[in-house]
Amino acid sequence: MSSPADLLDAKSAEAHLLRFLAIDGVTGEEKAIAEAVIDELVKVGVPKSAIRIDDANTRIPVPTQTGNLIVDLPGTAEGPHLLFSTHLDTVPMCRGAKPRVEGRRVVSDGTTALGGDNRTGCGVLVSLAETLIKHKLPHPKITLLFTVREESGLHGARELNPKDLGGATMCINVDSQKPADLITGAVGQENWEVEIKGRASHAGLAPDQGISATLVGALGLANARRDGWFGKIEKPNGKGTSNVGIFGGKNGKAAGDATNVVTDYAWMRGEARSPELTFAAEIAEAYARAFEEAKQAVKATDGAVAEVKFTHVKAYPPFHLADDAPVVTRAVKALETLGLKPNLVFSPGGLDANWLDKHGIPTVTIGAGQREVHTVKEYVELDEYVTGCKIAVAAATLKD
User: What is the pTM of this model?
Assistant: First the structure.
């Protein structure tokens, strides 16, 4: 028995993907890719009046060229109002990507990442609209959402006004690898920063009169590791991960500029993740204690110690959907209509789904063939990408 998903034009879907992969749109600079997506949507029959851009970028705390792209597809059948989402941006190492097809894979030239994360999602959503319109397939009201700045902190989804989605009750997010994997939950994240102000002195003539901010920072990290709070964390009251990503000066500057001067300033930024947001905050607090201990261990000859300022803030909340949640049930059925065996997954990384769920829209994330993301080895499995497109069509056209 044929499925509406069988009507998908695979060649057209692949053409959408290849066009999008060739367009720069790193996080915060999504205007060009948004314009390309709009152009493709109009070509496949979406009225311009159904396409709009919100003002989320005006609330994002870092410069962002454009807001989230939102598309309304009026319903032609009964059913829940569905949201299909993805993100427009890529990581900075995708800038200048030159995609090419090798067999049934799309690869870069090896000098940049490819951008399959998340140009595959853009291709899936455009192909979904194309299939529904071209074949006049019955479907409930559908909203398409293309967010900005996902890669730099899920900002577009976080600053989204849920009212702009018109009452969508569930969401299929496209931002993963294997089509059979359904991400139904993800960790939350706490971001932390520490600023260490030491005291400069001549490292050869009077090192004991200085207070090395670099040493305080290094000892703080060593203390965190010693106490089991660095990397993979398993404690009686919770589990999670942590990492320090930046250790140096602020705004891209070095902590010091000479080897003969005791470093008087250092700055670090790190993260803590856990399925429980309270435990992610507990990890961050453990780092605060570790740096405080380090401060007391590094003293000048007059007994002075460094000034340490530690702060942490919530980056995004965790979530975990029940296996029988309506959106999970719908996604499972969509996969099964295509002969796939669903595999429910809890993600160790954050997704737009974290904030969409927080906004009251339960969200499942599906895969569409992106592999080795955020590396120069990144590629897209075209057969899996086409399957991701078919999953979206199946989920949109299921009869309740």
Answer: 0.91
